[in-house]
Amino acid sequence: MDQLISLSNATLGQLAIERPRYDRSRLTPGIVHIGVGNFHRAHQAWYLHRLMQAGQALDWAIIGAGVRPYDAAMRDKLLAQDCLTTLIELAPDNVSAEVVGSMIDYLPIVDGNGPLIAQMADPAIRIVAMTVTESGYYIDPVTKGFDASHPDLVHDAAQPDRPRTAFGAIVAALRARRAAGHGPFTCLSCDNLQGNGDILRQTVVSLARLTDPALADWIDTHASFPNSMVDCIAPATGPKELALAAQFGIRDVAVVTHEAFRQWVIEDEFCAGRPNWDAVGATFSDDVHAYETMKIRILNAGHQVLANAGENLGIETISGCMAHPGIAAFFGKVQREEIAPTVAPVPGKTPASYVNLIETRFANPRIVDTTRRVAFDGSARHPGFVLPIVRDQLAAGRSVEGLALVEALWARMCAGVREDGTEIAPNDPLWDRLAPVARAARTDPALWLGQTGLYGDLKQSEPFADAFCAWLVLIWDKGCEAALRRYITGTERHTATAS
C-alpha cells in the first residue's frame, strides 16, 4: 500500500474519498457539543456536515467539549487532525468512507470547566448539545427525580463558579449570559432517554435552583429543551477500525465506523434558532415520544435481550448473537410477543416492520459491535429500557415470561463468570454492588429482585417474580441454551420449575 495520508486540513485535497467541499476556514461556531464520542461524530456531526456540503449552516460549526479527565485523550487525537473524522459506512454489501469536517475545535478540559463556561457564555453559541450516556443525568433511581444528594451536584451547588459537571457548567454559562443581557441557548440532549429533553430540563433547572432560584425561573421560562430521538449504531474504535481507514489510504486515529442507517427525530423548540437539519433527513415532530418509544423499546431493550445472553455464552458481537439460532429465536419471540405490543406505530412504520428492520441491522456482520459494549451499564439500561415494558405488560395482563428471562440472563451475567468458566470483567458503574448479589441469587433468586433501586416493587408481582426465579434456577442448573430452548418452544417456566 502507498504511504498513508495523515488526516488534516492540509491533506484533504490528497484524499480519494468524499471530503468537505466547503472552506473550513470560513466556519464559525454555533454549537457546543459535550461528549464527543463515536456516536456524536457519526450522527449529529454528520447531519450538520451534510448541510455544509450544500453551502448551508456555515455559522453553526461544532466546538467539542468534555468534563471528565478521560475526555482529554479524544481531544488530543482530534486536535492533531484538525477535528476531522473519517466515517466508514458498513453496509452489508458495501463499505464506503467520507471525511466529516463540521467540528472546528475542542475545548481544554480543566478543573472548574472555565473554558467550557466561557465558550457557552458567548452569544454566538445558540445550541449546547450533549451525549453523556443514559446514566449521566443524576436521576434518582427510585423517584426518577433530581438527585441533589449526589456528590458531584453537592460540589456544584457549593462552588457554582467552578462546577464539576456539564450541567453545572451550563448553569454557570446561562448565569453569565443573563448578567450580560444575552438570551439563553437551547439545551439539546442526544442520549437514549425517554423524554431526554424533559430530563435535561429537570437536571439543569433543579441544579440552578439550589443556588439561584431567580436564575432557575429564567432558564425554565426562556431556555428550550427539545426532546429528541437518535439512532445509529457506531461501534467503538479499535485495531480493526484503524485498519479499515488504512485501506482507504488514511491514517486517522479517531476513525468511526457505523451502519448504513441513521434517524434523528426532534421537537422543533429552539429558543435561539437551529440548522435546517430536516433538509438532510432529520425529522421534526410534535410526537417525538412515539418515535423514541419504538426505538428505545425495540432497539435499546432489544440490545439487552441479546447482549446478556451473548456474554454468558461467550459470543463476542451482536451480529454473532443474531447468528446463534437460539439467541436469534429468543430475540424474535420476545420482540413480537412481549415488546412490540407495548409500542404504537409512527408515520411510515409499524412495530412489526420496525422489529424486522432491527433484526436486519443487528445481523449485519460488518458491524463489529461487541456484546460487552452493549451490555455495559445494565444498571441504567435495564431500568430505563426493559423494566418499563415489564410494567406495561403486567398492567395489560399479558405475558412477561420472555422479559423475566432477559432479567435472569442479566443476573447470571453479573455473577462475573461465563458458562465456559472465563471471567466477565466488571462492566457496570455499580458492578461492586451487583456481583455479590448476583452470586448469592444463584441459590436465592429473589435476592436479585430485592434491589429496589433497580426493580422498585416488581418483586411483589407474582407473574414476573415467579418467572424470573424459575428462569434463574434453570439457567444455573441447565445453562442458558436450555433456558432459551424452553422459552422458544413455549414450555416456558412451568416446565422450568419442574426441572
Automatic annotation (TrEMBL):
At the top of the EC hierarchy, this enzyme's class is: oxidoreductase
Q: What is its EC number?
A: 1.1.1.67
Keyword Lyase applies: no
Task: Using the record's annotation, list all stretches that form the Mannitol dehydrogenase N-terminal domain.
Answer: 30-278
Highest taxon listed in the record's lineage: Bacteria
Q: Tell me which residues make up the Mannitol dehydrogenase C-terminal domain.
A: 287-468
Q: Which GO terms describe its molecular function?
A: mannitol 2-dehydrogenase activity
* Protein keywords: Oxidoreductase
Q: Which Pfam families match?
A: Mannitol_dh, Mannitol_dh_C
What name has this protein been given in UniProt?
Mannitol dehydrogenase domain protein
**Which gene holds the coding sequence for this protein?**
mtlK
